[in-house]
């Protein structure tokens, strides 16, 4: 009875299974995705072996002793193979997922919560973007009342730049263009504020001169 066990373990530890494990880990070192697939396959094979052991033990008799030992050896060999494969598989599993599994819940709930959180953050970001767009429109309307010619020229430049950007720029370059337009707009706004201050100072000087 001890002979088959020892022989099977020898073949599992130093024979073909070990060589296959070494070949698999070599491939896995070059391809993380392939390594993950190997681990998944090993887990599935282990589950199958456990099911076979359950069937053997549940209907155990004298004739089942040898098949039982063979399946135990196969399970030990597969677990050893799984450990070797897992050493090359660097995957970070969120603690929340493990807690859900321990509680007997569906781990997909974690994915759902993450998606809902992303949606909420996206709505907040969209609200901020809409607020800046509204502020920009309001400032542009105010500037148009005071400097209609300059604002019209600005809009023409913006329209021409948009046409050129749509024709030759990629999406990334388009984002850079939008940032450039925003910078130009704020520079124009600063210029407007400076001109307003200079205008007020000049008016004050004229008033003081008339009073003198």
Could you walk me through the main structural features you see in this protein, from its secondary elements to its overall organization?
With 212 residues, the chain is mainly alpha-helical. Helices cover 88% and strands 0% of the residues. The protein is built from eight helices and no strands. It has helices at residues 2-14, 16-30, 32-58, 65-87, 95-102, 108-146, 148-168, 171-211. Helix 2 packs antiparallel against helix 3, helix 6 (108-146) runs antiparallel to helix 7 and helix 7 packs antiparallel against helix 8 (171-211). The longest helix is centred in the C-terminal third of the chain and has 41 residues, at 171-211.
Low-pLDDT windows of residues: 1-18
Number of domains: 2
Q: How many separate helices?
A: 8
Helix content: over 70%
GO cellular component, one term: chromatin
Region (Disordered): 1-21
Protein name: Mediator of RNA polymerase II transcription subunit 10
Subcellular location: Nucleus
Provide a quick synopsis of the model.
With 212 residues, this protein is an all-alpha fold.
Labels describing this entry:
single chain, 212 residues, mainly alpha, 0% strand, rod-shaped, disordered N terminus, Mediator of RNA polymerase II transcription subunit 10, membrane
Secondary-structure map with pairings?
Elements: H1 2-14, H2 16-30, H3 32-58, H4 65-87, H5 95-102, H6 108-146, H7 148-168, H8 171-211
Helix pairs in contact: 1-2, 1-4, 2-3, 2-4, 3-4, 6-7, 7-8
